[in-house]
Amino acid sequence: MKMRILHLLVLSCFVAGYLCQRICLKKADIAFVVDSSSSIWPPNFDTQVHFLYDILSPFDISPTKTQVAAVSYSNVIRPQFQFNTYKDKTGVLGATQNIIHTKGDATRTYKALEYMNDQIFTSQNGARNDAIKIAVVTTDGETNPGGADSYTKEEGKKMTLQQAQRAKDNGVYVFAVGVGKEVNDQELLGIASGPESVIKVNTYEELRENELQDKLIDLTCEAGENTPLPPVTPNVQCEKKKADIIFALDQSTSIGSQKNFSIELDFVNYLIKKLAVASDETRIGAVVFSDDSERRLELRDGINRDSVVDTIHKFKWGTGNTYMDKAFADMREGFLPAKGGRPGLVPQIAVLLTDGSATDPYTAASEANKLKNNGVEIFAIGVKGADRNALETYANRPRNVFFVDELIALNTISDAVLTELCT
Question: What is the largest CA-CA distance in the chain?
Fold first, then answer.
């Protein structure tokens, strides 16, 4: 029992520790990733929320000191608030108390961590380069895709660990808080930054224990002071990157309207505005696809940033199916020297943006492989109805795949995508 209390207080004091004026003076961005599944009894969910509230109570919350963000998860991923949503303690504590218990029948921990990586810890949502990054992940069980995804439990658990590792690789110090007998010890260890960052208790009432706080505060302040400042996904400029980049934009019927299609166009143009576009720098091409594919901008013509942005802005939405294979084939031709490509001289990058599954998945995978065999780096950005498994097959590596639940959320991953494009 004492060891459990010790671990809880290490968490409480760590995240509050920089307030110890004697040692811990660093700023912190703290993200709560909160289990909201139906397996949690409503009074226990309230206790969980109060636990988070109690952790935050000692904080000096402001844009220059501690900032807080939160997302809850079950079968749905529900953003609660971002680092730049509330500017003071009153707002953050009030929002924490109002975290909604969605009572979903799945535990999609991987999706919650993916959201945290792609959207919470970005400069666009208030994350800071000079702040310690901390995540507190709570759960009463283990990853379970349920009926929300086509993944098996084992596939879901694997993705949870991949997303947790991605966070840690990006400098996030992760605590894993498990409650009850159904938690998976190995998964908690895989999520957390280390064994000392795993907090496991038998009941939610144990989250209220605080009797060793004074004794541990010096140790936790020291831990906070020794935590290195990690990089945050920056407001990226990519002026030094030379590349051939072709964007493939889904204009199928499921996009829904010209207004929605324009969200795609605005997202792509945001990226382009961060690039050094010129004949001897980065060249831009663009493809639109549905039943057919059409290269509307060749690399040889995509050599002036303002002109490229204006051209793409004027693209009109079409309708039809989602023949990604034709888009991949069109891009493969577009990277040839005759079309303005520079194979072997600069990196060649294909960026696919889609909200659906390939109408002909076998041919799509084959065409994606042909692109990769030609040395092209494929990035895949999926929206709501897209098949993440397929996108991961098309892309060169998992970090090249991004996913959002709605088109309107594309702007929340723009800096993260740009960071990878510029690497």
Answer: 73
228 has a pLDDT exceeding 70: no
- Model-level pTM? 0.54
Q: Is residue 309 classed as helix, strand or coil in its secondary structure?
A: helix
pLDDT, position 68: 92
Of the pLDDT bands very low, low, confident and very high (cuts 50, 70, 90), residue 371 is very high
Q: How many residues make up the chain in this entry?
A: 423
Per DSSP, 377 falls in state: E
Q: Which two tokens stand for residue 291?
A: 């039943």
- At 26, which amino acid appears? K
Using only C-alpha atoms, the chain has a radius of gyration, in whole angstroms, of 23
Gap between the Cα atoms of 37 and 35, Å rounded: 6
How far CA 22 is from CA of 132, 210, 322, 412, in Å, comes to 17, 22, 60, 37
The candidate with the shortest Cα–Cα distance to 417, out of 315, 346, 349, 333, is 349
Token representation of residue 416: 């993260």
Q: Which of 132, 134, 152, 153 is nearest to 142 (CA)?
A: 153
Which amino acid appears at position 264 of this protein? E
Q: What is the mean pLDDT of the chain?
A: 84
